[in-house]
Amino acid sequence: MQLLLNQTSPYARAARVTALEAGFGERLALVWSDPWNEDARLLAANPANKVPVLITAEGIALGETLLICVYLHQLAGGNPLAAERLQLAGLGQGLIDAAFGTVIARKQGGAAQDESVLGARRLDAIERLLARLEEHPERDAEDIDFGHYLVAVGLDYLSFRLPEIDWSAHPQLVAFHQRLLARPSFAATSFQ
């Protein structure tokens, strides 16, 4: 299997953590790609020009982080996915989406983008998602899966790219984040 990714994509990191946690580290070739420079390999695998892309052993290209995570979870024989677990994954994906959208908008149009209707919606979404994740019953489950990884990557991405968003008022999330960052898969994939 191959994973097309870049170093600072929270989406790619979530897929890579999931692959490592599922035991595919040795079978996964990392293909570093740049979606901002019309990378020919990436475009051939994903016409949307987005990372990550997982190329399966059968040569099928899977785009979209959640699909990749579900595929790897099932391939590794993971537990059936209950609605609460899928909800947690969706909240983690939503956190990544809102944070990434904010970063990209600022990169293209400056901090004034936060004052736009869309910018304000993204920042409000981050606050609502943090509050919901603070209370989510599956967050501290003993048997963790890709939903947990998505949440932890989203939190780490906030700290990496949007440090002005102080989420330390959510002590359950802080403890959860610290617990997951101590895992080898997170150490191996840290943002740089």
TrEMBL record:
It comes from the Bacteria. GO terms for molecular function: transferase activity. Keywords: Transferase. Transmembrane segments: none annotated. Residues 1-80 form the GST N-terminal domain. Coiled coil: none annotated. The keyword Cell wall biogenesis/degradation does not apply. The keyword Transferase applies. This is Glutathione S-transferase. It comes from Pseudomonas oryzihabitans.
